[in-house]
Amino acid sequence: MTTTTILDLPEQEYIEPGTRTCAGCGLPIAYRYILKALGPRTIMTHPACCLTILHGIYPKTPVAINAVNNTFASTAASASGLVAGLKATGQDDYTILAMAGDGGTFDMGIQALSGAAERETDFIYVCYDNEAYMNTGVQRSSATPSGATTTTTAVIPKEQPKKDFLQIMEAHHLPYLASACSSYPGDIFNKFIKAKSIKGTRFIHLSVPCPAGWAFPTKDTIKIGRLAVETGVVMLYEVEDGVLRLTGKTLNMARSGRKRSVEEYLQLQGRFRKMTAEQIVDFQRQVDDRWEHLLKRADV
Question: What's the fold here for domain 10-298?
């Protein structure tokens, strides 16, 4: 994969200053570089979510692309309709971008996404994952990690491990899928440039730290995202035609053999304040098992 630095990124901006997202939100950071990669001939569709807040209230928006609002469970269905409409009108120079949070993807949106992926519908789907239903009050989703407190797991932290959604999407035999993190803009840009050049359903899982839901200071958003990668909680990789490649920081960590303890990541977030020592050990085991599995696949 091409290595892109901040100085290599296009100067054109598609998001103006002053979005309505929470202070320190990781989503507009990532979205800025996604749009730099995809360009102005992009139509985006999204459900009721944090991204709706970013786009603003009609008729005003800080985002310089066309966007469609859809219902919570129908993001992939909306994208499929846009693809069909453009095909019917002979317009083949647009990129269709579907974006939804973990609740709208892992939970309510999985049916429409699975159907579209099986049909090989030509769009890019992004799950921006902040590990709970953040826009509706920080309720637990199937992307919430074990040990985390939410408003629906406030007394007893979530006991079940996070759903491995990338495995689910890989089972659909997609031509391209990848993971990314908002703290690594060059990696994001590279993966969306590649995804744009490929036909069929492309899926990108985007890790987005959330100060409000994860309970950390707004100034630490980039730090938390980088710690997620440096501890192996989030692994940066891509799978193209079934071949898995590690990318960016994860590739460098695999080559050096250095990975930080998950406790460094957990202790900076208030949502993990109720974790027991045994739960931290189990969290580390989950991360280590996935790390070893993907390293074997990548043949590092």
Answer: Rossmann fold (3.40.50)
